[in-house]
Amino acid sequence: MLEVAVFNIESAIQAQAAGANRLELCENPNEGGTTPSYGTLSVVAKTIAIPVFPIIRPRGGDFLYTDAEFEVMKNDIRVCKELGFAGVVIGLLLPDGNIDIKRTKVLVDLAAPMAVTFHRAFDRCKDPIQGLHDIIATGCKRILTSGQVPSAPGALSLLQTLVKEAGDQIIIMPGSGIRGNNIATIKMETNAKEFHSSARKVVPTQMQFVKESMQENLQNMLVDAADIQTMLAAIA
Prior knowledge:
The protein has about 240 residues and is an alpha/beta fold.
């Protein structure tokens, strides 16, 4: 199973065409991914046939949310349910670095019957083993993690430990820094069954005229379809 993170509708279309098994739908890659707009959600719901999990993250920064932000998250989950998405992606922490079990469970219950992934907020929690069991208790179906370092290839030992500790209770899905040239090694070393990659590719603007005095970077971020196919072949 290969999940591809996409940050716009064109990437979603290209990732599906390349054979991705599931999409994590986000906006604002420079913020680490935030909740997509209603326009994006509605078009993706009509256009993409494979399972799509929108991220429910009202802003960038940390994963400690105010009451008002928590209400936004609940409303966004209701929208995703109404639009028929297969699941959502969430992550909430307490000030002391533990998992926010109470609020996470509220969102998991609200999302049902959609499946819920706990995202890389997990990589910022104080104790990964305790965090794993706390997330299991909330009813989440999987954890997206880079092993509490910026890139998954740098944490193969912890990822292997998490996969073993999780057993059949929850899916551990390595993500961050995974590409076609390393996914086979990560699979072999961790025994994970699901993998996550943004397969990012920066493409130049298609504008024929660019106002040079604005000194702007008009590049766009899409997915590398060839690399998605390489990863799929490597874990087949």
